[in-house]
UniProtKB/TrEMBL annotation:
InterPro entries: DUF7847
Domain DUF7847: 54-202
One Pfam family per UniProt: DUF7847
Transmembrane segment boundaries: 12-31, 52-77, 89-111, 145-165, 185-203
Alphabetical UniProt keywords: Membrane, Transmembrane, Transmembrane helix
Keyword Transmembrane helix in record: yes
Protein name as it appears in the record: DUF7847 domain-containing protein
Domain of life (superkingdom): Archaea
């Protein structure tokens, strides 16, 4: 059922966000010389849940709304032209221009707001202040853009591992249950690794 699918997606998303918050709190404590117990880390993560929800909602709204507003003049110009862009240029070129106009600011904002979660949980900032802190950190770490990009891509890829790996083994039907367990375990381990990496970069950015 569609409703069940939506609930499963939202639950998985919330679990990933809380894991990132929890691991980030623990790792940040170790890096700053102020160790946090597992219970304290869980308590802090849960206590910051309302602010985390605000950060997630604002991130979605901003990364979708601002690129649309940036691309809006292009759409308006296209609307008043006597001919369609497809008549002037080929469809692939027109589609590429429209896609790039939206995708560039979308990816830029997503990158600039990427450490807002760490700022919210580790730094104990509110949603708006978390965005400002994330913006400053990513500005200071422009030289490590590739590194951050690799970590982001790796963490995103690990989300699809539990579903993709078993599909690779469809010819080995008897091993599918084993592959499911292995892929889920690897995905959870990688989630912890990526969350630790985000926390490490965040603490470095704040200290520096």
């Amino acid at each position: 059922m569609p409703v069940i699918g939506v609930v499963e997606v939202l639950t998985a998303f919330a679990f990933i966000i809380l894991i990132r918050a929890y691991v980030g709190t623990i790792v940040a404590g170790e890096l700053t010389g102020e160790p946090v117990t597992r219970r304290e880390g869980l308590h802090r993560s849960l206590a910051r849940t309302p602010s985390l929800v605000g950060v997630v909602i604002l991130t979605v709204v901003l990364v979708m709304t601002i690129p649309f507003l940036v691309a809006l003049p292009l759409f308006l110009i296209v609307g008043v032209l006597p001919v369609t862009p497809v008549d002037m240029i080929s469809f692939p070129v027109a589609a590429a221009i429209g896609g790039i106009t939206f995708a560039v600011p979308f990816l830029f904002l997503l990158y600039k707001f990427w450490f807002a979660l760490e700022a919210c949980v580790i730094g104990q900032y509110g949603p708006l202040k978390s965005f400002r802190v994330s913006w400053r950190i990513t500005t200071n770490y422009r030289g490590k853009f590739v590194l951050i990009g690799v970590i982001v891509i790796g963490s995103a890829a690990s989300l699809f591992l539990p579903t993709y790996l078993p599909e690779m083994g469809t010819s080995l039907a008897s091993l599918n249950p084993v592959l499911n367990v292995i892929s889920s375990s690897v995905s959870e381990l990688l989630s912890i690794v990526w969350a630790s990496a985000y926390a490490h970069i965040y603490v470095q950015g704040v200290v520096s």
